[in-house]
């Protein structure tokens, strides 16, 4: 009986270091706090409801990674004025644990929109995006 209970517990508990389910369990407390604060600061109740309903990957993209993406892309091309991370397609944003978001995005340049693949490094201790790279 004891062995069965131990086996069941091992199957039900998540393994450390593995990405958690899409419910946001993969994010650190600092990341969840930054996202919640940003959502609370949105101007209208409708905007707050919409952002709260986003999956964790979209929340990380919008709150943590997009500001760094815009700064990074503007350093390369001062004509970039808008960035979207995620193209609205299933699977275009992939959150790997609490340390990495990858996906596709678009930047608006003077000559139009350009699509790119990206990776966004995350620091679970501070809840910040630490690096942004395009490929």
Q: Would you mind describing this structure in some detail?
A:
The protein is α+β, with helices and mostly antiparallel strands and 135 residues long. It has one domain (25-134). The protein is 39% helix and 27% strand. The chain has helices spanning 2-12, 29-40, 45-53, 56-76, and strands at 82-85, 93-96, 100-109, 112-123, 128-134. Strands 1, 2, 3, 4 and 5 form a five-stranded antiparallel sheet that branches. A hairpin with a 2-residue loop joins β3 (100-109) and β4 (112-123). α2 crosses α4 (56-76). It is globular and about 40 Å long.
Contiguous runs where pLDDT drops below 50 for at least 5 residues: 1-24
Principal-axes shape call? globular
Structural class: alpha+beta
Through-space gap between termini: 53 Å
Question: Oligomer, anyone?
Answer: single chain
Task: Provide the succession of SSEs.
Answer: HHHHEEEEE
The average pLDDT score comes to 85
Q: How many strand units?
A: 5
Tally of distinct domains: 1
Largest sheet: 5 strands, antiparallel
Range of helix content: 25-40%
What portion of residues belong to β-strands?
Answer: 25-35%
List the helices and strands and how they pair.
Layout lengths: L1 H11 L16 H12 L4 H9 L2 H21 L5 E4 L7 E4 L3 E10 L2 E12 L4 E7 L1
Antiparallel strand pairs: 1-3, 2-3, 3-4, 4-5
Helix pairs in contact: 2-4
Question: How would you briefly describe this protein structure?
Answer:
The chain is an alpha+beta fold and 135 residues long. The chain has helices at residues 2-12, 29-40, 45-53, 56-76, and strands at 82-85, 93-96, 100-109, 112-123, 128-134.
